[in-house]
Amino acid sequence: MTTPLLKVNDLSKSYYAGYKRFKRQYNHALSPVSFELNQGETLAIVGEAGSGKSTIARILVGAEIRSGGEIFFEGEALEKRDLKQRCRLIRMIFQDPNTSLNPRLTIGELLDEPLKFNTQLDKNERKALVIDKLRKVGLLSEHIEFYPHMISEGQKQRVAVARALMLDPKIIIADEALTALDLSVRSQILNLLLELQQEMGLSYIFVSHNMNIIRHVSDKIMVLKKGVMVEKATTEQLFNAPQHEYTQRLIQEQSLFTRKK
């Protein structure tokens, strides 16, 4: 039996909320969830705001500490790897490049940062890699001299994709990364991500509330509601025969929204 690239067992997250009648109180942002991700596969995590989907993303990239559960990467506990190793394995693309890209740095400097802090490469080697990744996402080598405000929204998201690729990760998490883009640009970025997946054997975790995007890109889907996993299935199974009423409502609402547009 093949070892999954990523295996998550009973992952949970609670936040301390003070005392009540001398007892510590906690808000449970994420009840125990388990899932697997294989190489070259795309898992979608869907749900409305407050469902816990972004909490999973932040825990996986190390931005938050889990309250319980286990995370295994290629069969080895993820915490056994140091932060630099973890940064190379799992990278994230954020929703809004206007807030995730430092406006005071050139695009070249933005892409150079992860290399500078996580590799032993010299300046010329890093620059060559930066240019290579820019070309991979459909940008020009000249863009290294540009600042974020000098390029379009779609180009900014391409820069964000390039930055996620800089350390040659095995998993990329896209946290609502396409939500703010207009339809034509969204389609271009989606196609880019699918091409990169084929070329580099990447695995994706798409965090989204947009069921149309999810249907197009994912192999399997996990549905969260208020921190609880209510359904998990292949994409085909979930859309053809959703079992939980919450999943049915998400699909119906997306369908109605699409028709109105």
From TrEMBL:
Keyword ATP-binding: yes
Protein's UniProt keywords contain Nucleotide-binding: yes
GO terms under biological process: transmembrane transport
Signal peptide: none
Pfam families listed in its UniProt record: ABC_tran (PF00005)
Keyword annotations: ATP-binding, Nucleotide-binding, Transport
Gene3D superfamilies for the chain: P-loop containing nucleotide triphosphate hydrolases
One Gene Ontology term of the molecular function aspect: ATP hydrolysis activity
Domain ABC transporter stretches: 6-251
PROSITE patterns tied to this protein: ABC_TRANSPORTER_2
UniProt-listed SUPFAM superfamilies: P-loop containing nucleoside triphosphate hydrolases
Protein name: ATP-binding cassette domain-containing protein
Lineage: Bacteria, Pseudomonadati, Pseudomonadota, Gammaproteobacteria, Alteromonadales
